[in-house]
User: Fold this.
Amino acid sequence: MPEQPKLLDRVHNAIRTRHYSKRTEEAYAMWIKRYIFFHGKRHPSSMGGEHVNQFISSLAIDGHVSAATQGQALAAILFLYRHVLNEPLPWIEDIVRARKPLHIPIVLTPEEVRQVLDHMQGVPRLVALLLYGGGLRLLECLQLRVKDLNFARYEIFVRDTKGKRDRVTILPRAADVALREHLMKVKELHDRDLGAGFGRIILPTALERKLPNAATEWPWQWVFPATSRWKDEEHNTERRHHLHESAVQRAMKEAVTAAGLPKRASCHTLRHSFATHLLERGQDIRTVQELLGHRDVTTTMIYTHVLRIGAKGVRSPLDVI
Assistant:
C-alpha cells in the first residue's frame, strides 16, 4: 500500500488543483502550520470548532491582528477541513467571525496626484501612471505582458486578476510616448538575454508545454521586467521575473513624503483616486465597476461615500449662519 502523503503536501496539492494563486498557497500553508503548532502539533482531524475558535481568538487578543488577517487564517483552516481532510463541519456555525470594519478609502485630489507623479521618475513613475490612469492594482500592473497593451484602442487587458476575472481597462494616452520608449528598452534587454542563451519567461498554467516557443517570444515578455535574472534550479537556466512590488512601493512612499502630503497614500491609493475622480466627472458607477474588476457593484459603492464629503456633499450648518 503506497505511503500517504504528508498533510502539508496534501494541502499544496489541493490548492494547486483548484488553481489558487501562489500567494494564496503560501498564506494558507503558513496559517495551517501555525494552527497545528498552536495546539501542540495535534493532528487537525482530532480537533474541531472549539480549537479553531481558540486559535482565531488568540490572533486578535495576543497577536493584535486585523479582522482581515483573522479572516484569511479562518479561510485557510476551513479549506483544510473541507478540501484536504474531507471532514464535515457541523461546528462551523459556532465559529466566532471578526466583523470587518468599513474603512473609507484614502483618495488624493488630482493636484495631489500630480505632485506625487512629479516626484517620481523612471520605471516606478511609469507604473504609477498606469495605476492611476487605468485603475490597476500594483501586482496586476507588474504582471502585464507586452501583448496585453493595445495602443491602437488605448486598452489594457488585465488577466489572471484577483478573483480570476479578466477585464479590459484604460491605457492612458498621457503614458503613450513614455510607455513606447520603455518597451524599446525592454526589447533591447530581451534581445541581450536571448543572445546570452536565456530569455525564457515563465508562462501561465500549461502554456509552456502547449506553446514551447512562446516563452522566448516578444509578446509574452513582461512589460516591467526585473533588473536581474534569477536561477531556475528545476530547469537549470536563468529567467527574468517581473519587477518586484517593493521597488515601486518604496518610490511611491518617497514621492508622497517629498510632496509633503499629509496622507498615508500608497500605490493602492492611486487606484482609489482613479475610481473617485471618474465618478466626480459623472462617469456611471457600472462602468467604473467594470474598469476596476469588482464582482459586485456594492464594492464600488464605497467611493460614493467619498463623493458625499466636502463641497460635493452636505454643507455644515456652521457655513450657512
Notes: The chain has a mean pLDDT of 88.
